[in-house]
Glucose-1-phosphate thymidylyltransferase (Imhoffiella purpurea), 218 residues
Amino acid sequence: MILAAGRGERMRPLTDTCPKPLLQAGGKPLIVHHIERLAAAGIRDLAINHAHLGEQIESALGDGSAFGVRIRYSPEGEALETGGGIFRALPLLGPEPFLVVNGDIWTDCRIPEVGLAGDDLAHLVLVDNPPHNPEGDFALDDDERVRTQGSPRLTFSGIGIYHPDLFAGCTPGAFPLAPLLRRAMDQGRVGGRHHQGLWFDIGTPERLAELDRLLERR
């Protein structure tokens, strides 16, 4: 699943007329970078949620055949936050663990295999803390377990594998993902790994321009 429902307030005025996932870097929309990398990794069945200007996303990507994938959409109208958006899309994702990627990041991280260890409910890819999140989000211990407390503190990359049972007891509507992850961490059921390569959180026009310059050089 690619998360593409965010309004992109900090990207205005760029996102006043264009949904954030369709903003371009390196000559192609951000979301197309994801689709191409997922297809290259052998992941061909995709779900994409959308809200703000979502019809533009469907028009640009179609059924995915142009990229060698099959895309199904989960329209939200009003954005449901990360947890609510994934929960709404569960019927498209099936009963097995699934990969979720934030649509507003770019990374050279290898696409993780879609699977979970033991009775884990989630597996998170973490990165070094960027300047805009110096305190990090979670800790990763020596056994590659993700914890709410501890050190070193790292930042969640926006790439995760989740079991549908992570959302057990949830009800339709808008809600964040982080509380569900913290509950699973307290149960010792979240694994993770540290990606130390390139990673961009495209949260501002300046970061988008920085990524564009990098990709043009590459």
